[in-house]
Write a structure and sequence with these properties.
Helix content is 37%, strand content 24%. The chain is an alpha/beta fold. The chain has 2 domains: 2-148, no CATH class; 164-435, Zn peptidases (Aminopeptidase). Residues 250, 267-268, 301, 330-331 line the site of zinc ion (ZN).
Length: 441
Amino acid sequence: MKFFARSGFAKLGMAVAFMTGGAVFAGDWVQVLPAKSGYELIKKSGTGREKYTQFGETMIIHGGEIFNDAANKSAPTDSYPVRPGEKLVMVTSKDPAILDATFPGAREVFKGNGFIVLLAGETAAMNINAKSSDFTRVDPVPGNTVVLTAPVRGDKDTFKTDDEIAGFVNKLDMKTFMSDLNDLVNFKTRYTYVAPAQQSVDHCQKILEGMGYKVWQSQFSMGGSSANNLIAEIKGTDEEKHGQIMVVGHLDSTSRQPKTNAPGADDNGSGAAGVIALARLLKESGLKPAATIRFVLFMGEEQGLYGSKAYVKTMSGDEKAKTRAVFNLDMIGFDAVAPLSVMIETSSFNKPMVEKMTELAKSYADFSIQTSYNPYGSDHAPFLNQKVPAVLTIQSEFDNNPNYHQVTDTMEIINEDLCRNILRMNAAAMFVYGVKPEGSR
Ligand SMILES: [Zn+2]
């Protein structure tokens, strides 16, 4: 049946091509198949006309038909003939309402890990575009690109337990992390516009000052009101050579009753308490970092990344150039379905940093890790827009968390084991990029 349908469409495609004078021989197809089979199929039967896009363990081949029966027998393939006027549209979102939405008039060819790929005609595409927001972006599907890598994880051959980095990472104090997180949740809300939010900033300032950091607040405006980012700093012993790194996360929260009840345990008490935990780890290690290290808690993230945008705006050209790495922690505490998994997110110019982070994850953490090269919707984005190397660490199940921006985002949903492993990866990265970077004494 499938083949009759195909040849029928191919004829139609030829007719259209003939009428429009285009050089297309057959109708275009979109094929969705396991990534591994996809690469093999292109190598074996590709004509050079088709394009591929990898989303984790799935590949989408588009722009031509290289379907062949042998490949199909070994690999399940979903095929979609492209109707006249249809284009492939990619939705990248952190918003479950978008990820659960239906898109009238469009055909969904893939959904997973915060991505939706749709075949859409002009009207449907316009409706999809209208869903764009600070947390949802809509793009054409890029060709010959890995948008999201397949998951990898360490094993007994890659785990390291007895080197200098392991010694550092093992000092992570999870008990205090959990009690810090609990204290943040106990503010009831950290919605940027209400008083408890500023109280939580002052509270974190006291904690960081107690550790011995130089700490200050930096005011920015958002619409008619203002809020404060919190910055803690330790100067590097050789900033000239090793520059600065930053460990950041947003402290504010939201919900449907944001003024009175937005506990934000996962989003983003987990990341904010994580920033504090990494600051504490550094102090308790007794090590003097070679690079300057800044720990920053942003406000106004939930209204559109106001705090991080304001921060980046104040960075001079020199400061951007000396900032070698920014580690953004946002939602590191929810993992309902085994195995533990994490996604890191950055831009493709920052591949070397991702490769290093992946290696560190395989050595010092125990989870599967994937990288998305389509960054959006959190505080790493303003840095990346200025070509400052930044990565977001986020739970893979962000697209599947029923408590997102709900009053149910409480301590009960926190998976401490995921927090621990994500913090171990970032602790190792902080060590390698900031504490003792290559070439430091
Ligand atoms: Zn968040």
